[in-house]
Amino acid sequence: MRSIIYHQYGEPADVLQLTEAPELPPPGVGEVLIRVLSRPVHPGDLLGIRGRYRAPGNTAPVGPDGARPGFEGMGVIEAVGAGVDPVLGLTPGTRVAFFPARWAWSDKVLAPVRVVTRIPDDISDAAAAQLHVAPLTAALLLRAVQAAGAQAGDVVALSAAGGLVARLAATLLLAHGYVPLGVVRSEDAIRILSAQLPGVQFVSTQHRDWSRRVYAMTQGRGVRVALDPVGGEVASMLTAMLADGGALVSYGDLSGEALTVPALAFSTRGITIHGVSVGRWPSLPDAVRAADIDTALHLARSQPTAFIAAAVYELAQVADAVRHAERPGKAGSVLLG
C-alpha cells in the first residue's frame, strides 16, 4: 500500500515522501481494517513532522524505519476482526471516521472499534474526515471554560478565530450563553467570519491598538477566559487582558514562541493557565466520549459550511498539500484524498 513517510525532522514539504509500504495484516480482535478516503492536514501533524513534540533538549532523530504522520480521517471498512459487536454496525462497506489511528496518511489503517465512528448518510465525506479532532477539541475547550468558573454573559476570547476549532468552539460557547470574541489577523477575515458567525464579535491584530479594542468590547470588564492555540506574543497579550481571576487555556503552539507572563499576574491577580489536548481525549470515560461524539455529529450537521475543504490533494501531492495548509487566509481545511 502507499504511505507517506519521513526519515528526518524538518520542513514538511521537504521531508515527506510517498512510498510503497507492506500491506497491513488482517484486523485483530476488536479491530477493523479501513480503506482511507480522506484525511485532514492538521497543524499538529506539521508540528510533529518538524520535531516540535520532542521534550526540550531532546535532539534524537527519527527512528531507522522512519515515521508516518496522520491520526484522523475517514474511509470504508474493508475487513472486521473477531469480537466486534454486530450491534455497532461496523460491517465491510460501512463508511466510518476514526481517531486516533496510526498512519492515517496511508491507503489503509487498522483501528480499534472504540476509536471508530459510523458516519450517517447526511454527513459529507469532507465533514467525516474532520469529525474528531476539531469538534472534540471544541468540546474540551467548552468544558475548560466551565471549569474555569466562567458564567453566562462572560467574555471568552479565541485567538486564531478563523480556524475550525475556534469556529466550532464559538458555536458551542454561544449555545451556552457565553460571549465569544474572536481574534484574527485581518479585516478581511472579520468580514468573512462575521457572515458565518453573526453572534460573535471580532478584532484584528492588524490594528496596533487591538488590545484596547478588546478592553472596549468587554466594557472594561476584561476577558474571563482566553482560548489560545498560538502561544508567544498573542497569548501573552491575551493573558494581560484577562480579568482578575481569569484563565488562559492553551491548546497549541502555532507560533513556536515562548509565552511570557509576569509572575505577579498569578499571585496578585489570580490568573491561571491550563492546557487542553485532544490527545488525552481517548482516555476519558466511555460515557463522556460518547457524549462528545454526539456533539461532533451535531456540529457536522448544524454547521456544514464550517467543514468545507479549501482544497483536496492526492497523496502524491503531499508537498503541495502541506504548503497550502499553512497558507494565510485559506478558507477551510486542506484534505489529502
TrEMBL record:
Residues 11-336 form the Enoyl reductase (ER) domain. InterPro entries: ADH-like_C, ADH-like_N, ER, GroES-like_sf, NAD(P)-bd_dom_sf. Gene3D superfamilies: Medium-chain alcohol dehydrogenases, catalytic domain, NAD(P)-binding Rossmann-like Domain. Keywords: NADP, Oxidoreductase. It comes from the Bacteria. SUPFAM superfamilies: GroES-like, NAD(P)-binding Rossmann-fold domains. One of its GO terms (molecular function) is oxidoreductase activity, acting on NAD(P)H. PANTHER family: QUINONE OXIDOREDUCTASE PIG3-RELATED (PTHR48106), ZN2+-BINDING DEHYDROGENASE (PTHR48106:SF2). This is Zinc-binding dehydrogenase.
